[in-house]
Design a protein that fits this description.
By secondary structure, this protein is an alpha+beta fold. It has a single domain, classed as rbstp2171 (2-Layer Sandwich), CATH 3.30.2220.20. The protein has a 3-stranded antiparallel beta sheet. A two-stranded antiparallel ribbon has the order 3-4.
Length: 133
């Protein structure tokens, strides 16, 4: 397989999405996997750092709504909820949010099995020649 150029990487449409029925809301919603930056911001929002850069505690407040705010999009892929609107989304039916968050986590590679698989792959020996010494 040929090596990709930056232009090819930038042009790749790699963000998976699914339309999910939500009968409680009277229709479907589109759930899109997070970008790398969105995923990092989401994960950072769940951690409260202490002095010296150590983790002080986890911030689990509205964790499901925070995830879905980054993943619920319209037909053009634009977010339906901003980070400032998390509380409004969090006020919705918890069972619905949990159901949708499972889809969002899968599409974003946030499930435990996704992370374990990624960690396993990162431990593989590099292939090919290296130019570093």
């Amino acid at each position: 397989m040929a090596l990709l150029t930056r232009a090819e990487i930038d042009a790749a449409d790699d963000r998976a999405w699914e339309d999910v029925p939500v009968p409680e809301w009277g229709g479907d919603v589109r759930v899109q996997g997070m970008s790398g930056s969105e995923r990092n911001a989401y994960q950072s929002s769940l951690v409260v750092m202490g002095s010296g850069g150590s983790v002080q505690r986890l911030n689990m407040a509205d964790q499901t709504a925070k995830l879905l705010a980054k993943c619920l999009v319209d037909a053009e892929g634009e977010r339906l909820y901003s980070d400032k609107e998390v509380k409004a989304l969090g006020a919705k039916n918890g069972a619905v949010l949990e159901r949708l968050s499972k889809v969002a986590a899968r599409l974003s590679g946030l499930r435990k099995e996704d992370m374990a698989e990624a960690e396993g792959k990162s431990e593989d020996e590099p292939t090919g020649a290296s130019t570093t010494g």
